[in-house]
Amino acid sequence: MSLDELRALIDRHAPRDADAVPAIDGLMLTRAERPTGPRSGIADPVLALVAQGAKRLTLGGRIYDYEVGQYLVVSVDLPVSGQCTRASRETPFLGFGFRLRPARIAALLLETGTDPHAGGARRRTGLPALAVGETPADLVDAALRMVRLLDRPADIPVLAPMIEREILWRLITGEQGTLVRQIGLADSRLTQIGRAVRHIREHYTDTLRVEDLARLSGMSASPFHRYFRAVTALTPIQYQKHIRLQEARLRLMSSTDDVAEVGYAVGYDSASQFSREYRRQFGRPPGADAARLRNADEEVLTGQ
Asked: Which keywords belong to this entry (predicted)?
């Protein structure tokens, strides 16, 4: 019954307007009435639970399919391609998402005295940054109570933080607990790689030196490169290229700048290299791709 009520609430509250601001900080609700093509963007650390339909995320060469009764955890900022694979007007895709904040996970670990390395977190240093699990009933119930608050806005300031703690607790003690616990550990490999990921995102136009990123992460170059690829499914250079191309796509969709100018603005020295790599990534030359997206009024994936 909880999942049925969650579907009904998401169907009613999920924004039809892409610019709608959620009433609860960290909460994201998604509704789609048809399957979508792949949409590229940056997936921030998040819990994504499917209440109806199915979705696919692609990271590098890895594919993550998840459907009703399953959830996805993203642990660091990742350049992914996402699409709804099962949705219709009669049975739309319905998704619940909640942002995973490292400081709140860390605080809960400290407060509860939970062993942060339970389940082998210290040994499993090659954890990928994405994982899919079966959604337990208590996690569905917590998600349901969070969405119910949208009908009682006066309760949000008091109850939303409490329910967020419960959601985090269900994740920490659940099937993907090892991955979620590492999000809150300052000394975990995942957190160390996260520092490098944030640096690349903030300085994506700069020339990238793997040695500098390794030093920032507190590792030597060889293990850093190995762990970075294990977590993100990409090398640091590939990660930077994905960020550059996705930023270029956003700029092309939202402005009338010349294609070459956009390429230079995101860090490319050669317009021909920019166009070649853009076409390889998105399947069309930059100008044609931007025109198609503007005409179709498609959205770039931002999280869930």
From this structure: DNA-binding, Transcription, Transcription regulation
